[in-house]
Amino acid sequence: MDDMERFATTALLLLVIVRLVKEVKGVLEPMPRWPAGGREAIERKKSEGEEDDDWLTPEEEFERWAKGGARPGRKRLLVSVSQALLVVLAVPVWWRTTAIVRAPIPTRAISTETALPPLTFEPPVVHVTLPWDESSELVSAVLKVAAACSAADLRVRALPGVEATRLAELARLTDLDVDEWANSQSGGDGTPAGDYRLVFLPQHPDDDTAGGDDTAGVTLVVGTGRTAWVRLRSGADDEETLDAATRATRHAAECLALGKCGGGESEPWDPESDFSPLTPDGRALLSFTLANASPDRERGHVYSWRFGSDVEDCFLRHTSAALSRLGGFETEGQVLYHAKSAGERPRWDDDKKAFVTPSSELPFFVDSEWSLDTSVGELAAKPLHFVVYVPPSDECPLLVLREDGTPSPANGFVVPGWGGVVVWNPPTCGGGTSSDGGNKSYLSGSDLERAMEAAVGQLRQLLGLSPSPPHADIDEPKLNIRSVPASSAGFATWEVDVLVRRRAAAGHRAAMDSLDSLAAVVKAMPEMDVPKALAEAAGESLSESRLAREAAVDGRLEDAAVHARNSHAHAESAFFHPQIISLLYFPQEYKLAVYIPLFLPTLFPLFTGLMWDVKFYVRRTRCAAEHRRRAGKAD
Question: What DSSP string runs through 186-207?
């Protein structure tokens, strides 16, 4: 409300108050005062023979109101009083139905909590295990790397003095066997649960049972749990081997604890990024679609899949179980027909002997007309679509090109915030016929496995990881890097740890932003309705935020992630409360514009008439009583 509006409102209220005071003053003065010189003027006019009925003498005025001492009737007064009383009784009802409910928001606690530093975890610990009979130069080099890596976000502890024969036995095992042993020994060798291990496995030159790489002096293998190991020649003390071993220590520590593994095609994870495929309460819907662009039943170029038995049971169930600590992932599948690409027709490439779709056309590949229906679960969880695209028989084999013009290894691409597309070239490409003749064929076997591996790789990219685990494409001289495949799950334990830490920090930051915005909105709009459920949700979010900080300080990653997720869910529930969105805000200007034209023309005449009736009744009563008193004296 600006200054002019305040001035007009004040002036209007003053006029109403002055008029009411005037009426009250008239009630307190039953008889009007005789004007100065009035009696002399009337007597002079009567002596001159003029009649003037405009002025009455006090005696005539008294007789007019006394009416011979008869008491005044109360019917008119009762009607006016009942009308005014009805209005007065209606005021509490009106106030109750229109009053703004403002439950107390803990704004001070919100300001204190949001002013604290972001949610941080204790630096992960990587325990480096060395045999006690290894060269002193190697032990010294690893200890120096451990001291250099022990920064604010990572701690590396070297533990020399392990029995060499024990490590020699492990060195003879394959990577799969070592990984199985490491997962079975998790926490059982004195290493605290949740910490990571890096084990050096010295090998004799004549021992090749483990499948070592002769071209690399040192081989770093990252397992599926929380363990990595370094294979190197026993007793190696040359400068190149020592340098590769120290670089392997640094790479393993950053990879296991921080997720900085290098290699891969994904963009580096941005902590300030607002995108997340998960809802605030940690749920996501994975929708898989087998899209037939141009089905041809005559040649058998039409495909389906057994989603429940072949896809969900064999692949997606393991992925959902591996990501259960991150959130709840629900899956569903469908088959779509006549779903051609929305982009331009792919061109034939003689060198690649296939149709190609350049990277510039990929943003237009997905057609908005595709009926990618999802179940009712979409109402509660954000859907991520993964499409296995079967191109028309006259446009395949179809290859997806990267920005450098080379074919995509997975023959697919990621659509940020939406999902991904994998192009599958079936055997019926180029006019061939299906082995089933004109019947519908099913996507299965190795083709289905490759398609699901590509889809899981796209899911990894959407979650902020590289499409595949660390492998040998990292350019490190004299250092070979590889990883143990995470079976059908697609995610190693240490990778899920990285995602949980990232998700917890991002969710906690989003919760604090929502609470801060909510407090600012409530403070800026004093007439806004604040329901009790909203205040309770804000309080619950603050409580969960404090519990998340305590769990993070104590090193309880799982508990901190759960509390941060709950804090984010409660904060979003408070900020998007249905009552605060539907009813919201009635400013003072709105109230004046509605109530003054509605109530002032009705209530002002009502109360003015009541004043007149009270004045009439009081004046009649006093005059009649005085008349009876005078008559009694005369008698």
Answer: TTTTSPPTT-EEEEEEEE-TT-
Letter for the amino acid at 379?
A: L
Distances (CA, A) of 607 to 12, 601, 611: 16, 11, 6
Contact call for residues 492 and 319 (beta carbons, < 8 A): no
Q: Judging by beta carbons within 10 Å of its beta carbon (0-12, 13-18, 19+), is residue 346 exposed, middle or buried?
A: buried
Nearest CA to 513 out of 346, 274, 295, 332 is that of 274
Distances in Å between the Cα of 387 and the Cα atoms of 105, 292, 412, 458, 533 are 46, 10, 10, 11, 41
> Mind listing the pLDDT tens digit for each residue in 296-354?
877 778 899 999 888 888 888 888 888 888 888 888 899 999 888 887 888 888 888 88
Residue pair 205/233 in contact (Cβ under 8 Å)? The answer is yes
What is the tally of helices (H) and strands (E) in the chain?
16, 16
Q: Residues 384, 275: contact at Cβ < 8 Å?
A: no
Residue 141 near residue 159, CB atoms below 8 Å: no
CB contact burial 288-312 (16+ within 10 A = b; e otherwise): bbbbbbbbbeeebbbbebebeebbb
Three-state helix/strand/coil letters over 122-149: CCCEEEEEEECCCCHHHHHHHHHHHHHH
The DSSP annotation for 604-622 comes to HHHHHHHHHHHHHHHHHHH
**pTM, 2 dp:** 0.75
